[in-house]
Known about the structure:
Elements: H1 2-53, E1 60-68, E2 74-81, E3 88-95, E4 100-107, E5 113-114, E6 117-128, E7 131-142, E8 147-155, E9 160-167, H2 181-184, E10 200-201, H3 207-214, H4 221-227, H5 229-235, E11 240-241, H6 247-271
Parallel strand pairs: 10-11
Antiparallel strand pairs: 1-2, 1-6, 2-3, 3-4, 5-6, 6-7, 7-8, 8-9
Amino acid sequence: MSATREEVVRITVSMTITCLLGAAVLGGIYIGTERYQEAARVASEKSAIAQMLRLPAQAKVREVRQFLAPGGRGVVYQEVDFGAAGGPSHQLEFTLDGRLVSNGTAPALPPEGRKDLPSLGRTFVADLGGAPAGFVVEGVTRGYKNKIRFLVALTRDFHIAGVRVVEHEEDPGLGAEVATSWFQGQFLGRAAQDMGALSVTRDPMPEDWRGALASLQREDLAEWSAKYAALLQREKSKPIYAVTGATISSRALTGGVSATVDHFQRRWELISPYLGGGR
Length: 279
């Protein structure tokens, strides 16, 4: 009986050690993978922001994270170093009617927020020579199948510098076309103040405009904009041409971009006096 008891103890101890080692290995792999994914996400976002705003190497980028305050009674803004995983942040809190509640420092929250402070999106502010050189705003809208997550780039005088879909589940060959350069290029040059009236049409796209947009991915944006300046001027007051057979996806992204730009303008007017660099 004694030998049997010792055997049970030995097996139990052996299994416990094995489980602990296995858990440690899996935990290490998870932490390493999570850190790698986070680093890859930050690098991808930095590259996208630099490309969309055509930023020089000396430009600096600030990240402003927005969260819904506990109880939905206000909005919290945190200004952090781009890609910061923790540490202090400059934090502002406003009531829903725009009254400043607090202005100070606080531990930085993760971009996705937390249960009591859910994320309301992020804004990236590019600084050059001590002043904002442009903005990239993160937006989400409901597409035909699921959410569409996108970035909208704005010049310092609030004109659309680019739109880029970064996540979607729309159907290939149909709704997925909203993630192509020819569709996203239709937003270029439009004034933020005009976005609220922007609509979507199912009319056929003019062939000269279609040809210009088809070449967008192959050419430098500055050269492309100069080459097709007359077409840009003509089309920036026209509706967005829908993807054939995917009007819902087309309207979803167009409405999402319009709402995101409108929300950003009002938000920036409110918070910019309290952030580094000003307006």
